[in-house]
Model the fold of this input.
Amino acid sequence: MFALQNEKDFICPQNTRLVTTDVSCRSDLHHTCPNDMSTLILENLTKQYADAAAIQDVSFTAPAGSFTVLLGPSGCGKSTTLRMIAGLDTPTSGQIHIGDRDVTHLPPSQRHISMVFQSYALFPHLSVRENILFGLKVRKEPAADFPRRLQRVADLLGLTALLDRKPSQLSGGQQQRVALGRAVISEAPVCLMDEPLSNLDAQLRHDMRREIRALQQSLGITMVYVTHDQTEAMSMADQVVLLRNGRIEQRDTPDGLYARPATEFAARFIGTPPMNLMDLSTQQDGLGIAGAQDLPIVAAPAEAKRLGVRPEHIRIDDNGRPAQVESVEYFGADSIVVCRMGTCSGIAVRAPGHLRANAGDALKLAWQPERQHFFAADAAVIPPSGRSGAATLSL
Ligand code: ADP
Done:
């Protein structure tokens, strides 16, 4: 039985250390953190329904005290994964470990996990105080500790002045904070959140993202957080598990996912606007942008089918490749200019300031060769080391 008594117990001295390689062996984990009792390990988790698998062969480690985001489009298996970690669903096969305990077949109450859902699920007839304490009372935890635990959580979340109010007397953000308070007061070392911010407006979401991240870090909680919003994932996570059709597409740090997407799907899922993908075709001097009669693409591997470049890495440059403007959107600090090159349309370029251009205008685009990503016919990235037949001309 693993129960934490005070805030100090949550904090792991190396709580931000991250394992980025797949973990297939339990002993690999012991160097993640000396106190790895809240390290969460999923091994080959599969959930098969009658007609299809919701998730297949999902394995990852959430190191103690780290923030893991399960990211992906609707229906990719995020909630199913989270529900199995919580014990609300049983896997068809695979194992779940928390610390040194195999919890795969334990009921939710024995996993020492707290959860925050999209709907705050506050009891409308109970006060903030009673809502926060509800779980402790149900679990018959020592009542003598309630005032101390309540005060700490209320202080942490700025709820002290609101303890006597009913949920209907709170704003959306305050209600969400109460839901967080309910999770935090349980002092569970692992916390699961399923789209907890999707009912809030944009500004509140932004504020709450920061609050949740700060809370998770200060308490050293092992967090698994579900979202379809890549901005949430990028701004909060130590590691992102990107899911697609029930399988892990890529698991990496936010930096890694942005800089080294493993597939076209990962490349397009991260970034706003997403990475441009341009078809390549064989031309006289090497691989070039399909339909464009221009210089070949520098360093393009012979097997490349598509070239990816992020909008923020393309610049308007008189020495660049010819393009035509399709549209311009102005955002204040910058403009998104959508262009066509050869037969590739919809190429987004982030230009500083207010770019004044009209549809049909000609301009030239350039980028650094190191900003290029090449993808093969199967949509997998061609890693720089694995490339062959590099062209030699550059812009
Ligand atoms: P996400 O949270 O990423 O939106 P889910 O985990 O809810 O996705 O669902 C993953 C897939 O499993 C979806 O195709 C969904 O329709 C399917 N699924 C989820 N729950 C059930 C169920 N109880 N019975 C059958 N299929 C289900």
In short: The chain has two domains: 7-112+188-264, 273-386.
